[in-house]
Design goal:
- By secondary structure, the protein is an alpha/beta fold.
- It folds into 3 domains: 93 residues, Winged helix-like DNA-binding domain superfamily/Winged helix DNA-binding domain (Arc Repressor Mutant, subunit A, Orthogonal Bundle); 96 residues, D-Maltodextrin-Binding Protein, domain 2 (3-Layer(aba) Sandwich); 104 residues, D-Maltodextrin-Binding Protein, domain 2.
- 41% of the residues lie in helices and 23% in strands.
- The strands form 2 sheets. Strands 3, 4, 5, 6, 7, 8, 9, 10 and 11 form a 9-stranded mixed sheet that branches. A two-stranded antiparallel sheet has the order 1-2.
- Helix 8 links the parallel strand 7 and strand 8.
- The relative contact order is 0.12.
- InterPro entries: LysR-type_TF_proteobact-type (IPR058163), LysR_HTH_N (IPR000847), LysR_subst-bd (IPR005119), WH-like_DNA-bd_sf (IPR036388), WH_DNA-bd_sf (IPR036390).
- Pfam families: HTH_1 (PF00126), LysR_substrate (PF03466).
- This is LysR substrate-binding domain-containing protein.
């Protein structure tokens, strides 16, 4: 039986690497420079592949080489396979307990308004670790998305095999600048411009139900694509939005009534949701995750969330 039909008889990895370089450049000399081999070594590796497969991969003509149809087909598969192998090795390295990287997925609004301003202090405490921050919200498959941790609002079903670390209970309420509340809304919600977000479209309705104020209506209203944008619009004095902790915690703690500091004129109420840290194993089983978890818990405690 021909070797080509024996799927376990794969060509050596070194020969495939040499072939990919030669195929990309269509030059054995340039391939030799790229992979730090001699011209003869590249030529022998390609010949070994051609003998193993039983077809020509290159046409040699006038000291030049050109890929055959079989060569082009093999190049596509070899490049995809080598890239996948490289990515997998990198992922394994990055998620090893001794890796200097920690990949954290965080809801965009929380990342931009709360987490990112604090990451400098984590780096000061743990200069050996690099946080790879990825912004995403909602359900997450930590394994397939190659994340070590995810910071989430638990408003969706979380798999039973995930470890959950409680961070804080969410609170929400109308937020705006003091100037807007005093001078433009005249301290009345029904005279205010309500700011909505399409990522949390029911925020105002949920708050009104909780406060038994379903008859309350805005003077005008406006929609934004993202919760972060609605909060930024409120901070810019364009209206009043439903804000939540910890996203607006820094503003409420400062309480300096500066032009771009948010206040909560009606107070904040529990929403029934929590912010949690998700991981595939208990944080204590990985020193990187344990360090980040401990630091994160302290940050939430200091934010009075």
């Amino acid at each position: 039986m021909s070797k080509i039909h024996n799927k376990r008889q794969l060509p050596p990895l070194g020969a495939l690497t040499a072939f990919e370089a030669a195929a990309k450049h269509q030059s054995f000399s340039r391939a030799a420079e790229e992979v730090n081999l001699t011209h003869g070594a590249i030529s022998r590796a390609v010949a070994q592949l051609e003998e193993r497969i039983g077809v020509e991969l290159f046409v040699r003509r006038n000291r030049r080489v050109y890929l055959t149809m079989a060569g082009r087909r093999l190049l596509k598969t070899v490049s995809e396979s080598l890239n996948a192998l490289s990515d997998t090795v990198e992922e394994i390295h990055r998620h090893d307990k001794n890796s200097p990287f920690l990949t954290v997925s965080c809801e965009p609004s929380l990342a931009m308004r709360w987490l990112m301003p604090r990451l400098g202090s984590f780096k000061e405490q743990h200069p050996e670790l690099n946080i790879d921050l990825r912004m995403a919200g909602g359900p997450i498959d930590l394994l397939s998305e190659n994340c070590d941790l995810a910071i989430r609002r638990n408003d969706f079903g979380i798999p039973d095999n995930y470890s959950q670390t409680f961070l804080c209970s969410e609170m929400a309420g109308p937020v705006c600048t003091d100037n807007y509340w005093q001078e433009q809304a005249n301290q009345a919600l029904d005279q205010a411009h309500w700011l909505h977000s399409r990522t949390r479209p029911n925020a105002w309705e949920d708050w009104r139900k909780q406060q038994e104020l379903m008859a309350l209506k805005p003077q005008s209203e406006q929609y934004f694509d993202h919760f972060f944008y609605a909060l930024q619009a409120a901070q810019a004095g364009l209206g009043i939005a439903i804000g939540s902790t910890p996203l607006v915690s820094d503003d409420l703690v400062l309480n300096q009534l500066a032009p771009q500091t948010l206040i909560s004129p009606m107070g904040m109420q529990l929403t029934g949701y929590d912010y949690v840290l998700l991981s595939l194993t208990e944080p204590t089983q990985d020193q990187r995750i344990d360090a980040f978890t401990r630091w994160l818990i302290v940050q939430f405690e200091q934010s009075n969330c």
